[in-house]
Amino acid sequence: MMRKPIMAGNWKMNVDHIEATGLVEKLHFTLVDKDWDPAKSEAVLCVPFTDIRTVRTLIDGDRLNFGLGAQNVSQHDNGAYTGEISTAMLSKLGVGYVIVGHSERREYYGETDAIINAKALKVLAAGMTPIVCVGEGLDIRKAGQHVEYTLNQVRGTLADLTAEQVAGLVIAYEPVWAIGTGEVATPDDAQEVCGAIRKEVAALYDEATAESVRIQYGGSVKSGNVAQIMGQPDIDGALVGGASLQPDEFAAIVRFYQ
Ligand code: PEP
């Protein structure tokens, strides 16, 4: 089964809605100049909530081949949840992807596997695709527990999802020690865990589901290391933080296959 590579840029809490216009246009022109073939890789921009309307307008107006993503969502439908944003609000703005369970949300906002699971279910119910983040911290890696720890997060975050739902979603393996640190997991390290995740999906569901689900690696991915990472059999894309704010870098990551 051919899984289409998916490169998602996570802008985090950077880029206001004015700056977003410049970044999207630069990215678009860089990719067009360099002959990007959108049939060979999918590019998704996961932007702050306040940029969604602007980026949606640019994508529609200029017929850009970018997917639009959010970085978080509430697990509740609506109501007295001050400051929260619902899946219905996002889907109405044409958002296609939502990152759930990023390690920064787990660490700073206390998100547990159960909360992330509830968010993933809501995202799916609203017809969007969750990018479910998993991955171990440095202490777990040093103790040699990284595979079991990450698989436990996979089981927790995918609880109650159907095989059909899992087949269509994206799992991002992001070792926390490699995020924003310049420290990249070796391609073998990344493959070890991504391969184990695919096997776990096969065990929890079936082979067809495991063959279909797309698994990203995330952690200091740059133009210089993306080809090696993408050369691994169980890695189908990248979740990119810092480098997604640099149009030339992100464009090169999207065109990793050239
Ligand atoms: C991320 O935030 O998901 C990430 C992988 O960041 P960076 O690429 O900067 O390590």
The CATH topology corresponds to TIM Barrel
Given as residue ranges, the uncertain stretches (5+ residues, pLDDT < 50) are none
Q: How far do the termini sit from each other?
A: 21 Å
The major β-sheet equals: 8 strands, parallel, barrel
Indicate the CATH architecture. Answer: Alpha-Beta Barrel
Superfamily (CATH H level) name = Aldolase class I
Spell the H/E element sequence.
EHEHEHEHHEHHHEHHEHEH
DSSP strand tally: 8
Name the average pLDDT: 96
Helix proportion range: 40-55%
Given helix and strand content, the structural type is alpha/beta
Beta-strand proportion: 5-15%
Strand order of the largest sheet: 1-2-3-4-5-6-7-8
Domain count: the total is 1
Quickly name the level 1 CATH class: Alpha Beta
Shape descriptor: globular
Cα Rg: 17 Å
Task: Please provide a written account of the structure.
44% of the residues lie in helices and 15% in strands. The chain contains 12 helices and 8 strands. The protein has an 8-stranded parallel beta barrel with strand order 1-2-3-4-5-6-7-8, surrounded by 5 helices. Helix 5 crosses helix 7. The protein is globular, with a radius of gyration of 17 Å. The mean pLDDT is 96. The protein binds phosphoenolpyruvate. It is found in: Cytoplasm. The active site is at residues 102, 174. InterPro entries: Aldolase_TIM, TIM_sf, TrioseP_Isoase_bac/euk, Triosephosphate_isomerase, Triosephosphate_isomerase_AS.
